[in-house]
Amino acid sequence: MPSITVLCGGVGAARFLAGLMQVVDHSSITAIVNTGDDTELHGLSISPDLDTITYTLANAIDPERGWGLAGETWHSLEALERYEAVRPEGSAAATRWFGLGDRDLATHMYRTQRLREGASLSQATAEITRAWGLGLKLLPMTDDRVRTEVTTASHGRLAFQEYFVRHRHALTVTQVDFVGADTARVPKAVTDALDTADIVVIAPSNPLVSIGPLLALQRLAGALARARSRTVAISPIVGGQAIKGPAATMLADAGIEPSAAGIAAVYAPWASTLVVDTVDGGLTTAIESYGIRCVVTDTVMGSPARAAALAASVCAAIR
Amino acid sequence: MPSITVLCGGVGAARFLAGLMQVVDHSSITAIVNTGDDTELHGLSISPDLDTITYTLANAIDPERGWGLAGETWHSLEALERYEAVRPEGSAAATRWFGLGDRDLATHMYRTQRLREGASLSQATAEITRAWGLGLKLLPMTDDRVRTEVTTASHGRLAFQEYFVRHRHALTVTQVDFVGADTARVPKAVTDALDTADIVVIAPSNPLVSIGPLLALQRLAGALARARSRTVAISPIVGGQAIKGPAATMLADAGIEPSAAGIAAVYAPWASTLVVDTVDGGLTTAIESYGIRCVVTDTVMGSPARAAALAASVCAAIR
Question: For residue A234, what are the β-bridge partners?
Answer without folding.
Answer: A275
